[in-house]
Design a protein that fits this description.
extended
Length: 401
C-alpha cells in the first residue's frame, strides 16, 4: 500500500494574487481633469495673446477675457473628448461653466468688499467716526471731526420699525396662502409676485403721497419705515410661502390624525419645521430694505444731526448718508462715504449672524434653557409618580389619561 506524498503547507497558505482587479478611486476630481483644465487654460491664453498682439487689431481687457474664455471652453471640450463620450463631454463643459460663473460672482463680491474697505481706510480708524454726527463738521474739516452716528441710529430705528410691521404680517400672509387655498389666495399670490419687482422710488412716492401729503404727517423716520416695509413685505411673503410649501404633508397629516386643529398644527408643526427657511426670508427682506436710498430721501429727508425720534423731524440712514458723502468733490467726504458703506456692510453681516443664531435651529432642537426646563419637568413627574406609588395611588388618574 503506497501513501501519496503530502503537499507543502506553505504552498497552500500562500496568498493568490488577484487578477484583473483594479482599485477604483472615489474622488470626484481626478488628476487627468486637473491636467486638462490647466492645459486648456494655458492654450487659450496663448492663442488669445497671439490673436490680440499679432494677428488681429483687437484690444481691451474685457474682450481679451471673453475670447480667452470661449477658447478655453472649446479647447477643454476637445481635450475631454479624447477620453470621454458625448454626454460626459457635455457634463464636464456644463460643470466648468457653472463653477466659473460662481467663481466670477465670488471674485466680484470680494472686489466690492475690498475696494470699499480700501477707499474707506482713512475714515474707519477714527473713533469719532462712530461716536459723532456731522452737525459740527463741514466738507473741509478733517476726518478727526464728525461721524455717522446719526446715520447708524436712523438705520437701526427704521429697520426695526419695518421688521415689526413686516415680519408678523408677512408670516400670516404666507400661512394664509398655504393653509387656506382658493381663488382669493391665488389673487393675493399674484399681487405679491408682482410687488417683488416694484421699484423703490414707487414705494417712496406711494408713502409720500398717502402719508405725508394726504394725511398731513411730516417727513420722519416712521414714514421712511413705512416705505421700507412696502419694499420688504413682498420679499418676505414670497420667500416664506416657498419655504412653508416645502414642509412635508405627512407632518400635517400626522398632526391631524392626533386630533389637532389646523392652526395648532401650523403653530407647533409647520412653523417650527420651516424655522430656518423663514429666518432666511426675513434676512432677504431686511437686506432689501436696509440698502434703499430713494424711499428714505423722499419720506425722511436728510439731516446732519442725531434724531432719535422717528415720529417727527428728518432722519438719515446709512445708504442715504453714503449717497450724500460721495457726491462731494472733497477727498475727506468721499472717504467718509466709503467708510459709511463699510459700516453698512458690517451691519448687514451682524444682522445676518443674529438672525441665524435666533432662528437657525432645526425642528426639534432645543436651547439650553428649554432643555433644562424639560429635564426639570421630567424630574418632577418622576418624583410625583414615586410618591403616588408609595401611597398606593394609581400612577395615572382618569383625568390624566
Amino acid at each position: 500500500m503506497t501513501i501519496a506524498p503530502e503537499r507543502p503547507v506553505a504552498a497552500e497558505s500562500a496568498p493568490v494574487p488577484a487578477v484583473g482587479e483594479r482599485r477604483r478611486s472615489l474622488t470626484l476630481l481626478r488628476a487627468t481633469d486637473v491636467y486638462a483644465l490647466l492645459a486648456a487654460a494655458a492654450a487659450a491664453l496663448s492663442l488669445t495673446w497671439l490673436l490680440f498682439a499679432r494677428l488681429l487689431p483687437f484690444s481691451g481687457t474685457v474682450g481679451f477675457l471673453v475670447v480667452a474664455y470661449v477658447l478655453f471652453l472649446a479647447l477643454y471640450g476637445l481635450v475631454v473628448s479624447f477620453d470621454e463620450d458625448g454626454p460626459a463631454v457635455r457634463d464636464r463643459l456644463a460643470a466648468v461653466v457653472v463653477q466659473s460663473l460662481g467663481l466670477v460672482m465670488v471674485v466680484a463680491l470680494g472686489f466690492v468688499i475690498v475696494f470699499t474697505l480700501w477707499e474707506g481706510r482713512k475714515a474707519l480708524p477714527h473713533l469719532n467716526f462712530f461716536t459723532e454726527d456731522m452737525a459740527k463738521a463741514g466738507p473741509l474739516d478733517p476726518l478727526s471731526v464728525g461721524g455717522i452716528l446719526h446715520a447708524i441710529l436712523g438705520t437701526l430705528e427704521q429697520i426695526a420699525i419695518a421688521l415689526v410691521l413686516t415680519v408678523p404680517s408677512g408670516m400670516v400672509c404666507a400661512v394664509f396662502l398655504n393653509e387656506v387655498p382658493g381663488r382669493f389666495a391665488r389673487f393675493v399670490r399674484t399681487v405679491v409676485e408682482a410687488m417683488t419687482a416694484l421699484p423703490s422710488i414707487v414705494a417712496g412716492l406711494f408713502i409720500y403721497a398717502t402719508v405725508i401729503l394726504a394725511l398731513g404727517f411730516d417727513r420722519s423716520g416712521l414714514a421712511a419705515s413705512l416705505a421700507l416695509a412696502v419694499m420688504m413685505l413682498p420679499i418676505i411673503i414670497r420667500a416664506a410661502d416657498v419655504v412653508i410649501r416645502l414642509v412635508p404633508g405627512t407632518l400635517r397629516e400626522a398632526s391631524y390624525a392626533l386630533g389637532t386643529s389646523r392652526w395648532r398644527t401650523v403653530w407647533h408643526v409647520v412653523l417650527p419645521t420651516a424655522r430656518s427657511g423663514l429666518t432666511t426670508s426675513v434676512i432677504l427682506g431686511t437686506a432689501r430694505g436696509v440698502g434703499e436710498t430713494s424711499p428714505v430721501l423722499l419720506t425722511a429727508g436728510f439731516t446732519a444731526e442725531i434724531n432719535t425720534d422717528p415720529l417727527s423731524g428728518p432722519q438719515v440712514s446709512l445708504p442715504l448718508a453714503t449717497f450724500e458723502f460721495v457726491k462731494s468733490p472733497e477727498p475727506t467726504m468721499i472717504a467718509r462715504g466709503f467708510g459709511t458703506a463699510a459700516v453698512l456692510m458690517a451691519l448687514v453681516l451682524l444682522l445676518f449672524i443674529v438672525a441665524r443664531v435666533v432662528g437657525g435651529r432645526g425642528a426639534g432642537q432645543l436651547t439650553r434653557r428649554q432643555e433644562h426646563r424639560r429635564v426639570m419637568a421630567s424630574r418632577r413627574d418622576a418624583e410625583r409618580f414615586a410618591a403616588r406609588a408609595k401611597s398606593g395611588i394609581p400612577r395615572y388618574t382618569r383625568s390624566e389619561q
